[in-house]
Each structure stands twice: as C-alpha cells, then as structure tokens.
Amino acid sequence: MNRSKLILVGGFLGAGKTSLLWKASQLLDQQGARVFYPKK
pTM for the complete prediction? Predict the structure, then answer.
C-alpha cells in the first residue's frame, strides 16, 4: 500500500494558497500522480 503525503500550506488572507494548491494538483495529475481536487 502506498502512503499518502500531507502538505501543509499556511499564509495570510489573499496570499494565493488556494491558487497554489490548485496549480500543484494539476501538475501532479499531469505527471500521473493520483490527485483528488474538485472540478470547477
């Protein structure tokens, strides 16, 4: 069984945390990683 990775992201309001996670999940998905993110 593969282990999950937990990535913690912190920052101020409006710092771009959500955008960072969205882009990172898309890049990991393109590289073949199993990623869950809600579709817009």
Answer: 0.67
User: Distance between CA atoms of 24 and 28, rounded to whole angstroms?
Assistant: 6
5 sits in the region (left: phi over 0; alpha: psi -120 to 50; else beta) called beta
| Amino acid at site 35 | V
Dump pLDDT digits (tens) for 1-40.
778 878 888 999 999 998 998 899 889 889 998 887 666 6
Q: 8 φ, ψ to 5°? A: -95, 135
Alpha-helix runs per DSSP H in 1-40: 17-30
Q: How far is 34 from 10, CA to CA, in rounded Å?
A: 23
